[in-house]
Amino acid sequence: MVEKHGFDRQQLHAVIGQAKRLDYVLRLMDRQAPAYTPPAAPNGAWLRYCEQFITPDNVQNGVAFWWDQYQDALARAQQVYDVSPEIIVSIRTA
Asked: 66-78: per-residue pLDDT in tens?
């Protein structure tokens, strides 16, 4: 992961270490969780959301917001809060 995708080695060790400690809890939750069958197609809620918010204008506004106006601020937010710019932009432009 470090060589192929550029991940930080120490951060990976920290995440994997947490996963090992939580493994028991996750297995217990998995046994108690109801079975889940993913939907065969998008549901009505997603289709209504998509039609209303994922429009060419909103995509263009998101790009302008990201690159033209707030690129530096979004980069700082990612460093400080570990929230990717895509998440912030998608919330802002919706």
From this structure: 888 888 998 998 9
